[in-house]
């Protein structure tokens, strides 16, 4: 049994030696490779992180710029609403003034129409009275002409009658 224990112990020592010399050496080399690989990867990660940081800063700057543009846009909208309200008020005042002016002009036009109608009536009345007067004057003229003709006959008799009177 002691022999078996020695053989088992020999194989265990042999296995530990093999592990220490071969496997541990391979593990150590592998760790060295991993360390150098980690340095390369950390450089890649660092450059990636740096690129990511730059991109993040760029996005932060862009978002601040967009936020500024949004604030300016909102301010422009507020100013636009204010201006539109004041323009609406002014347009309402203009509309009201136009309505008042339309009423005043309608009244004045109606007055002018009435005046023109009265003037037409007056003119027609004057025309009738003038026509009457002209007819009376013509009648008086024809009467006066007849009277003048009679007087001319009495005062200046025709030439044949004078010859008869002289004889």
Give the helices and strands, then pairings.
Layout: H1 2-155, H2 159-166
Protein described:
This protein has helices spanning 2-155, 159-166. The termini are far apart. Helices cover 97% and strands 0% of the residues. The chain is an all-alpha fold and 167 residues long. It has two helices and no strands. It has one domain. The longest helix has 154 residues, at 2-155.
What count of helical segments does DSSP give? 2
Q: Which stretches are low in confidence, meaning pLDDT under 50 for 5 or more residues running?
A: none
Instruction: Work out the strand percent.
Output: under 5%
What's the mean pLDDT score? 87
**DSSP strand count:** 0
Q: Helical amount among residues, as a percent range?
A: over 70%
Q: Largest sheet, if any?
A: none
Number of domains: 1
Structural class of the secondary structure composition?
mainly alpha
What characteristic shape results from the CA principal axes? rod-shaped
Query: What is the ordering of alpha helices and beta strands?
Result: HH
Concise summary:
The chain is mainly α and 167 residues long. The protein has helices at 2-155, 159-166.
List the keywords:
167 residues, mainly alpha, 97% helix, rod-shaped
């Amino acid at each position: 049994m002691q022999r078996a224990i020695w053989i088992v112990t020999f194989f265990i020592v042999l296995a530990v030696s093999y592990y220490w010399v071969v496997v541990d050496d391979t593990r150590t080399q592998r760790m060295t490779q991993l360390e150098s690989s980690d340095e390369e990867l950390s450089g890649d990660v660092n450059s990636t992180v740096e690129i990511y940081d730059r991109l993040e800063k760029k996005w932060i700057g862009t978002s601040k710029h967009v936020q500024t543009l949004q604030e300016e846009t909102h301010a422009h909208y507020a100013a636009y609403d204010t201006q539109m309200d004041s323009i609406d008020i002014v347009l309402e005042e203009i509309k009201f003034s136009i309505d008042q002016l339309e009423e005043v002009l309608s009244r004045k036009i109606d007055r002018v129409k009435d005046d023109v109608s009265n003037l037409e009536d007056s003119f027609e009345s004057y025309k009738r009275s003038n026509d009457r007067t002209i007819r009376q004057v013509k009648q008086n003229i024809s009467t006066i002409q007849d009277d003048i003709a009679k007087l001319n006959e009495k005062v200046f008799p025709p030439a044949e009658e004078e010859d008869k009177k002289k004889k």
